[in-house]
Amino acid sequence: MIKFENVGLRYGVGPEVLSDIDFALEPGSFHFLTGPSGAGKTSLMNLMYLGRRPTRGLVTMFGQNINDLDRRRLAPIRQRIGVVFQDFRLMNHLSAFDNVALPLRILGRPEKEIENNVNELLEWVGLGDKMNVLPPTMSGGEQQRIAIARAVIARPRLLLADEPTGNLDDEIGFRLMNLFDQLNRMGTTIVIATHSQAIMDKLGHPRLILDSGHLHVESGNDKNWIQKKIEGVF
Amino acid sequence: MFTKKDRKLGVADGKRQYDLPLNRGEGSGFLILLIALMTFLAVLALAVSFVLGAMSERWSSGLENKLTIEIPAETIVESDENIIIPNEDVKSLTFDIAEAIKEHPAVQSADILSEEEIASLISPWLGDDLALGDIPLPGLISVQLHVTSPETLRVLEKITQDISPSARLDTHESWLNDLLRFTGAMQFASLMITLIIGATTITAVAGAIRSRMAIHKEEVELLHLMGAKDDYITEQFQRHALTLTLQGSVVGVLGGGIIMVLVSLISGETAAALVPDFKLNGLHMVILFLLPVMACGISALTARHTVLRVLANMP
């Protein structure tokens, strides 16, 4: 699904922030992306959601070589990716409903379908009574839930989340990790950037560990995940 | 429906217009005002151009294949002094010339202007209270030709001067050419002004769109990263520019229309005999009232082009 081969990234004429990145994510896999602050997690996420093109190396997504693709042909690929940004990046002038509806509107789905899906998801994340509320008046946790709902509403094939449970209490955090898990069971590939050793230990998925721009992959202890692979769910 | 109080509390108002926050203040009023002024000026410039064109058309078509023969009331004799010819002689000379001219096959008609007609022609300069017996009047013959050619004019001039050496043929060509050249230049200037107004509008719209894109860079980037195609983003800016332009240009055209009606009324009251009426035909009116449509088209295309150029720099 995603393959990075010898990928490097530098900003302008500065030093490489990512060097010789090599990894492949299988469809339906669940990975944590971790590493110390400044290790390049956000830069790597940026490359994965096609916010940038690599300075060197080869990136293949959904079977297509990104390096050779015209920028206009990247839009359909981006539509298959859901992103939860660390700073949420919500549209402050739009209601919670309209923020979550954005990916469906971009896909050109009918308004009736949008209304049903968005209402259901907002209820599910506990914001059913705040559909018309503007994000600036919401708490950090509520904003984060909107950001997550927006990322998953269109059932993306790849979900990238940057510290998605950072502002949430344990109960909501658990429910959202459960949501990610359900999406993963339905075949969505998931990459979650996190510092939380507890979450990583609890879920036990494989880890992409970044350190000073270099990456190595550590297999997890997720018996469920291994079992699912054996059972051929993916 | 949400009340103002609800919005203050951070609740969205009923219906979203754009994904991008384009319908919020930030210079929209300024752009509407600018477009209104530009359209207003364009209406006036185009109206002037149309009126000048109509005037030239009327002048030239009215005088086509026409000439005037003037038999002056005064003649030059050998002693080099101006001698007043008696009115009776002017009349008989005029009559003789008219009869002789009519014989020529190129002449369709040759009508002698009556004293009353001559008096009405000179009344703008000398007033309506002119006593015809007070001043010597020239003889005037209005000649309508089937077709004008230099040869015909040469022959007619000879016939005329054989009867009265001081008689003159006026083909109106010299002053008409000057006048047409002048109105042509004015028309060209009006069209150039219209083009400059159009170019200014394009620049203003492009600048406004660029500034909007800079202000909402993060939101545009977000839509882009979520997989919005260029057309999806462009369409929002296009619709926004179109709405503002429609508002501004309708105000501008209405303002221009009011001014034109006022000018028409004022020029009608002055009853300027030398200048034709300030009036536009149906086609001209349609073109002027289609200006908002044209302005919207230009504005939408400018917005589209501007947004696409900015988006092309995104990954």
Helix segment tally of chain B: 10
Query: What fraction of residues of chain A sit in β-strands?
Result: 15-25%
Count of individual beta strands of chain B: 6
Poorly predicted regions of chain B: 1-8
Can you characterise this structure?
The complex is a heterodimer of chains A (234) and B (315). With 234 residues, chain A is α/β, with parallel strands linked by helices. Chain A has a domain of 113 residues: 3-Layer(aba) Sandwich (Rossmann fold), CATH 3.40.50. Helices cover 35% and strands 24% of the residues of chain A. Chain A contains 8 helices and 10 strands. In chain A, α3 runs parallel beside α5. The longest helix of chain A has 16 residues. Chain A is globular, with a radius of gyration of 18 Å. The model of chain A has no long low-confidence stretch (mean pLDDT 86). With 315 residues, chain B is of the alpha+beta class. Chain B has 2 domains: 179 residues, no CATH class; 108 residues, Alpha-Beta Plaits, CATH 3.30.70. Chain B is 65% helix and 9% strand. In chain B, the strands form 2 sheets. Chain B has a 4-stranded antiparallel β-sheet with strand order 4-5-1-6, covered by helices on one side. A two-stranded antiparallel ribbon of chain B has the order 2-3. In chain B, a hairpin with a 5-residue loop joins β2 and β3. Chain B is elongated and about 95 Å long. In chain B, 27% of the residues are buried. The chains are: A alpha/beta (234), B alpha+beta (315). At the A-B interface, α2 and α3 of A face α7 of B.
